Amino acid sequence: MATAEKTPRFTHPAARGACPFAPPPAYDEARREEPVSRVTLWDGSTSWLVTRHEDIKAVLSDPRFSADSTRPGFPFVSEGARQLNTGRPTIIRMDDPEHAHFRRMLTGEFMVRKVEALRPEIQRIADELLDRMTDGRTSADLVREFALPLPSLVICLLLGVPYQDHDFFQGCSRVLLRRASTAEEVSTAQAELAAYLVELTEAKRARPDDSILSRLVERGELSTEEIAGMGRLLLVAGHETTANMTSLSVLALLRNPDQLDHLRKHPESVPGAVEELLRYLSIVHSGLTRVATEDVDVAGVRITAGEGVICMVNTANRDEQEFPGADELDLTRDARRHLAFGFGVHQCLGQPLARLELQIALTSVLRRLPELRLAVPFEEVPFRGEMLVYGLHELPVSW
Predict the structure, then answer these.
(1) Residue ranges for the chain with pLDDT beneath 70
(2) Looking at the domain assignment, is residue 376 inside a domain?
(3) What are phi and psi of 275, to 5 degrees?
(4) Nearest Cα to 335, choosing from 353, 351, 309, 317?
(5) How many domains does the chain contain in total?
(6) Looking at the domain assignment, is residue 52 inside a domain?
């Protein structure tokens, strides 16, 4: 039985390297030399860092690794993340059978066929945003005027959340997802967002409509607070992830003009290109966290019960054993084995919607803005390295 070094060689988070699209060099080093290694966290505690594609699949599909953040030894990647996981757990912090019970209530809302029926409406939203952005202008911040409002409008439509409240819930999201947020800041944002969603859920109870929140109320299986908790998860995840993937994808294409040219010439290849961009960018740079409930061997290393594990999906998606030439963006690659949406029973519930939004966003931008280019030097583009969900604060472009 192999053993990892007793003194951790790595820290989490690690310093980023020269390429802002790539995982930190230390994590690539870990994947090559010590794929299951000890890592020191922000509070001085230690956890296991798992960095290879096959090992992460093994961990995420093994019920002996728990997603329940109330278990002793569960690793938290920041003070705010620890506070975020206090109180009533959401489905991403539950194990089966409880997890499966709650997840089944939402599965039907995100089935591929049902999501595909939204295509005309999402396309209409994308077209209207681009109409507004380009009206009499030749430059804009693509994040603020397109990448962020598109998924925000869509998730508000699905949940039945008034979009005029977007400044409020986006502000709460920024606090909840910022690494440097204190426990007090996260607690306040949590409480404000919970109170908002409880009030909204009660309004759906009084006046039902065709929204996910309303249908959860009609099922009669959940309390108002449980429905509000589900709403919070969907609302935050439903706009933050796709917004950042959209802006990062556009920037990655601008930095790889040969790939951008290929996509313009072959618009039918957009679905495959989205998979490669998901692999190449992998915006969950903080990793997926678990805790062992019993002793488990991973890649010949013994992880004992009560020890935390952080699965770095961004390094897994750059694993040369799985994706030859992994550091290159290749839109002709079959990248469907990527782990950007996780793996196993907790795999992202909303991935059909995310894929559709990304396909529509990229197709629309490329069709409407054939002369699209960066409006500032690449080095001046502000990346969200301080956030739990990676992305861009702004993307100044011109056309």
Answers:
(1) 1-6
(2) yes
(3) -65, -40
(4) 317
(5) 1
(6) yes
In a domain, 379, yes or no: yes
Token code pair at residue 11: 């820290």
Q: Which domain holds residue 392?
A: 10-134+242-398
Separation CA 294–CA 289 (nearest Å): 16
Q: What is the structure's pLDDT at 1?
A: 53
β 46-50/308-311 pair status: parallel
Identify the residue whose tokens are 């739990």.
Answer: 388
Asked if residue 300 lies in contact with residue 34, where contact means CB atoms within 8 angstroms, the answer is no
pTM > 0.85: yes
SS (H, E, C) the chain: CECCCCCCCEECCCCCCCCCCCCCHHHHHHHHHCCEEEEECCCCCEEEEECCHHHHHHHHCCCCEECCCCCCCCCCCCHHHHHHCCCCCCHHHCCCCHHHHHHHHHHHHHCHHHHHCCHHHHHHHHHHHHHHHHCCCCEEEHHHHHHCHHHHHHHHHHHCCCHHHHHHHHHHHHHHHECCCCHHHHHHHHHHHHHHHHHHHHHHHHCCCCCHHHHHHHHCCCCHHHHHHHHHHHHHHHHHHHHHHHHHHHHHHHHCHHHHHHHHHCHHHHHHHHHHHHHHHCCCCCCEEEEECCCEEECCEEECCCCEEEECHHHHCCCCCCCCCCCCCCCCCCCCCCCCCCCHHHCCCCHHHHHHHHHHHHHHHHHHCCCCEECCCHHHCCECCCECCCCECCCEEEC
Q: What is the pLDDT of residue 277?
A: 98
pLDDT at position 88, please?
A: 76
Q: Is residue 347 part of a domain?
A: yes
